[in-house]
Design brief:
Number of strands: 11
CATH class of the largest domain: Alpha Beta
Largest sheet: 5 strands, parallel
Shape: elongated
CATH superfamily of the largest domain: P-loop containing nucleotide triphosphate hydrolases
Oligomer: single chain
Distance between the termini: 41 Å
Strand order of the largest sheet: 2-5-8-1-9
Number of helices: 13
Number of domains: 2
Radius of gyration: 22 Å
Helix content: 40-55%
CATH architecture of the largest domain: 3-Layer(aba) Sandwich
Structural class: alpha/beta
Length: 271
């Protein structure tokens, strides 16, 4: 499947260079780390690439409470008590299932995972194998790879990946897209048929949050879509819609004296 066909099939606006890079990495049997802020389409691009190369997709979401046992799998406790550690009693986790199926293991927000869980990935990515106690070594079928995402390290609740793990990844960085592409995305994703004027104002307002010096983390195009849909239900009042959609999606700088409401009032004057 060529890049244009792939992008159109998965409704991906722009991102042709990133798609080309990812497809090249997967074809070269490499693992890919996608880095970028929330809402820039990391998951959508990873899913499209997996489909484009004809691989099954197994997803894991990063969580500080996630354990190695969840990733690898476990033996059924009642069965072990009755029969001991028999292979048929093993319940494979997503890593083993992806390895055995030659599938893409997609790990969303890998840098939220505990270090011990991250380290389990090393032999799978390096040698295509994982040793499971009481069962032996599991070897990956052809096609197995890891595509992971991470938010930039300055985001709350994220950590740094180890040097050893980073050495097993190729890096594709995604930033926010150009204004005209974000307008197309909102028009495509909105469910309430907003007017062009509403969409353009919603995008401009959202983009302004990324440039305001009082804001540590601005909003993504996902916020613009929410604003456009809500504004359509509020007779076109984009600013009232923004007051509902933006507070949960922006983060003020630490020590900033104003409130989110104060900041939004200032942004209204710019749009």
């Amino acid at each position: 499947m060529d890049i244009e066909t792939l992008a159109n099939a998965h409704r991906i606006v722009g991102r042709r260079s990133e798609l080309r890079s990812m497809l090249a990495c997967i074809a070269a049997e490499r693992n890919v780390l996608l880095e970028g802020p929330v809402g820039v389409g990391k998951t959508a691009i990873a899913r499209a690439v997996a489909a484009g190369v004809g691989r099954d997709w197994i997803r894991v979401d990063g969580d500080g409470r996630y354990t190695e046992g969840k990733l690898v799998g476990h033996f059924d406790p009642p069965g072990v008590i009755e029969k001991g550690y028999q292979p048929e009693l093993f319940v494979p986790g997503p890593l083993i299932r992806a390895m055995q199926a030659g599938a893409v293991l997609f790990i969303n927000e890998l840098n939220r995972m505990p270090e011990g869980v991250q380290n389990v990935l090393l032999p799978a990515m390096d040698e295509g194998q994982v040793h499971v106690p009481h069962m032996g070594t599991v070897h990956a079928d052809a096609g197995f790879c890891v595509i992971a995402t991470q938010n930039p390290a300055e985001f709350v609740a994220t950590g740094h990946l180890s040097e050893a793990l980073l050495d097993r990844f190729e890096l594709v960085v995604l930033g926010h897209q150009a204004a005209d592409e974000e307008v197309v995305i909102v028009r495509q994703d909105a469910c309430c048929d907003p007017t062009d004027a509403i969409i353009e104002t919603a995008v401009a307002l959202t983009r302004a949050t990324r440039e305001d010096p009082r804001i540590r983390r601005g909003a993504s195009v996902r916020a613009a879509t929410a604003i456009a849909d809500i504004a359509t239900q509020l007779d076109g009042d984009v600013h009232a819609a923004a007051a509902l959609a933006l507070p949960t999606r922006i983060e003020l700088l630490e020590g900033e004296e104003g409130t989110v409401s104060d900041v939004l009032e200032g942004l209204k004057k710019k749009t």
